[in-house]
Design goal:
Two copies of one chain form a homodimer. By secondary structure, chain A is mainly alpha-helical. The first copy, chain A, is built from five helices and two strands; from the N terminus they run αααββαα. Helix content of chain A is about 55%, strand content about 5%. Chain A starts with 12 loop residues before the first helix and ends with a helix. In chain A, about 30% of the residues are buried. At the A-B interface, α1, α4 and α5 of A face α1, α4 and α5 of B. The structure holds a DNA duplex (30 and 30 nucleotides).
Chain lengths: ~120, ~120
DNA sequence: CCTGATGTTATATTATAGATATAACATCAG
DNA sequence: CTGATGTTATATCTATAATATAACATCAGG
């Protein structure tokens, strides 16, 4: 697994890790059942603190993307929560569509964006 | 204009204000050319500090949603930056689609979400 | 020419979150 | 027993969010 931290970004390191893991699961670079590096391993590899990686992994578990075993570490195991997941994504989409509407981006253009992202990988 | 702050939310006050203004512009509750309350007015109305409101307004200006006149205050005036706006929204959509794909939400379901949000107001 | 309301700037303080640094602990495969 | 795992606990440092005062430049309107 490859994680790259942008140290100049305003986005928190643990969020960058979390987002990249989600992206890699979605686009097939991380497969179901596959193990993530240990918190210590990944921390050293990217040159940050263990606790920061741990925070990312804990969040991923809490959000239902991985399962964590006390000694085998974290592995990809997406938990489906149809109602909660749909609501969360719809809520985020609400603001995104609001921005688009303000900026004069029409529905078809947004559909095209969605299609492009669905066309990738996997 | 009505702004409601959720004081228990983890989301910063100034971001709540910014998001609600964007939403209201998008869905027609705030019309082009319409004035926002002064920073002092709105701050007192919702019971927070002037500087917090000012931060929200400044961000909205920086992002191209309002124009600020030194003494008439802020008014809705959306600036279109086709390239930058499209890229920003597409980037956000990327992660949103990644989440959806992980959670088994298919493309049609996402399209439906978009349509629902486009169907509202205005 | 004043008055008052506007956004703006400056400084200081407090609280919280992000990140780091050590250290120790429980677990259990090998 | 050993070693690697995630976990928990402190402590420290920095940056951000929010508040609190105060002052400033601007200028419409009386």
């Amino acid at each position: 697994m490859t994680i790259e931290i942008n140290f100049n970004s305003e986005e928190a390191y643990y969020m960058q890790i979390r987002n990249q893991v989600i992206s890699q699961i979605a686009y097939g670079e991380l497969k179901k059942g596959e193990s993530l590096p240990s918190v210590r391993q990944l921390a050293e590899e990217i040159g940050i603190n263990m606790h920061t990686v741990n925070k990312a992994y804990s969040l991923l578990r809490q959000e239902g993307y991985v399962k964590i075993d006390r000694r085998r570490g974290a592995m990809v195991d997406v938990e489906y929560r149809q109602d909660a997941d749909l609501k969360e994504i719809s809520d985020e989409m609400y603001l995104l569509v609001a921005k688009a509407r303000c900026k004069g981006i029409d529905k078809d253009r947004v559909h095209k964006m969605v299609d492009e992202h669905y066309a990738k990988g996997n």
